[in-house]
Structure formats: structure tokens, C-alpha cells
Predict the structure.
Amino acid sequence: MGPVAEGARGERRVEGSSARLAEGVYEPVREGLEYRDRSVSVVSNLKAPAGHVARPVFQLRGVSKSFARRNVQALDKVDLTLEQGQFASVIGASGCGKSTLLKIMAGLTPPSSGSVMLSGKPVLGPRRDIGMMFQQATLFPWRTTLENIVLPIEIQDGKKAALAVHDRAHALLDLVGLRGFDKVYPSELSGGMAQRAAMCRMLIAEPDVLLLDEPFSALDEISRDFMNMELQRICLERNATAFLVTHSIPEAVILSDVVYVMSPRPGRFVEAVQIDLPRPRTLDMLSDPLFGRYTKQIRGRLDKGAFI
Ligand SMILES: Nc1ncnc2c1ncn2[C@@H]1O[C@H](COP(=O)(O)OP(=O)(O)OP(=O)(O)O)[C@@H](O)[C@H]1O
């Protein structure tokens, strides 16, 4: 374990190694860069930038989920705080409950117990300030790219409202490099282009929080790297808060401010690894020794079965 320093407000600061923090709740204790939790080991040697004020936007407390029909407990008392502009990832074995957690955060499925709050209000169903993206683009084949992008607005507010956001949709198409593809049907798009269109659809309602369930895992490595860098750029530009489910340790590390390691089912967080790499991240960082250290540490935790 690395040296433990006493912070200005008396909190423990763990330098450069893993350590169990004191009993407490999952709250930012020092400008959002360190956390206390009953069960999570935190690795952090981050210093809060001057003037940085933590603003928690997403808060989960004691979230558990059981599927009674199959007698499966998917999640066990998950606590999570996401700050405005923070990018967090969750990584864990197949079936440990990552997608279930994301669906609960999105209001698509209710927790069996615990609370989910976004911007001070409980998440009780799908919300406009939450955008989601999945592994498959799931564009409707009979609608053009543009018509797919404005669909969430059309469903919520009608055709007139959808027409009113066409300019915004064109700006998003520009943003993701799809200018000129507005009238094209999904069958004419490559997998990467379809995911870029799905990204526009996620962004059309200008959500504050992006929930991402392996959005680029079906893409080849080059497209995936490119899309991840695009995702980072969009998040930084909009100061969006993002939560990513992934099976890729390098992807989690290159994108995230913090990577949560989840235990096998029932899923709970067993480690939160703060990623102290500067932003914007670049693909060159994949060969940075610090990057290698983080991936090794996360892999080691997963190899242990992510049990505590
Ligand atoms: N609607 C459901 N009804 C019953 N069981 C479910 C349901 N959804 C998920 N489960 C179960 O909950 C557990 C967690 O599933 P989940 O999809 O969240 O895992 P995951 O970590 O996302 O897996 P993967 O990495 O393979 O995508 C699994 O055992 C799964 O079978």
C-alpha cells in the first residue's frame, strides 16, 4: 500500500496504491476526486484542480436488483456518485449485472431496493436528460438517417417538434463526420457510420448524462478507437457526464476518470480506480507506462475474480 497522507480536511489520501478507505458513504470527500465507501477500494493520487467544485449529478444508493421469476440476484447494494462532466466506466465478468445497472440508471427497469437520483430528482422512468447508446445501432431501416436521428423528439413531442430540430440534427451529422448522409437509409451505412448516426440520435435531445452499453464493441479496432476519441471530444465539449459498460480494459482506461470493477453476480463495486491521465486523452497514451499500470491493476483485480 502506498503512503497515506492526511488531507486539509482530515480525509485520508492514498498515494499511488490500492487501499481500503474508512467506513462511510459513497460521497466525494475532496472536490470529487476521492470517495469513501463501505466496500470499495479506491486508488487515487489525483489532486483536485484549483477552483474545482464537485457537483454530483447522478446518485445511486443501495441499489439492488432481483429477478424473482428466475430467482436471480443481479445487483447487491450498489452505491455510485457521478459528478457533472465525469466519465466513469464499469467493467466486470459476463453476467455480473452491468447492463442491469445501466438499465436501472436509465429508468428502463426499477431497482428492487435503493434509490436512483439524477439532478436531485428520482429516476422513475425514461427521461429526456438521459441519453442511451447500445451495442447495436438499432436504426429503423425504413427511415433515413435524419429521420432516425430525430425520432426520439418525434415520439416525445410530435412531428412538428421533430421538424424543428432538423438543423440541430444536421449539426450533429457534421459533428460525427456524416455530412451528406442525412437522406441515406441504414442499409447503405457501414457499422461505424450506423453507430455514429446512433450517437446523433442519443444527442438530439441534448441529454446531460450519457449511458453507454458497449456502444462500439461490434466495430473493428480502428473504427472503435476513432469513435472512442470522438466520444471523448463530444463529452468534453458538452461537459457531459458519461457512464460506460465495457469488457475492454484499455477502452475503460483511455476514456475514464474512474473505472469501477464489479464483482461476479450479484454485482457490486469492489474497486474504483481513478485514472490520472491528462485530458484530452490521445491514442498515444495507450503506450504510456502509467496507462499500462492501470490496465495491469484492473486486470489483476478481474483475474482474482473481483472478489474482496
Ligand atoms: N429481464 C431479466 N430477467 C431475468 N434475469 C435477467 C434479466 N435481465 C438480466 N438477467 C440476469 O441478471 C444477470 C445480470 O445480467 P446483465 O445483463 O446485467 O449482465 P452483464 O454484466 O451486462 O453481462 P454481459 O457482460 O454478458 O453483457 C444475469 O444472470 C442475467 O441472466
Observations:
- The first strand starts at residue 4 and ends at 6.
- The pocket of adenosine-5'-triphosphate is lined by residues 67, 70, 72, 74, 92, 94-100, 265 (CB under 6 Å).
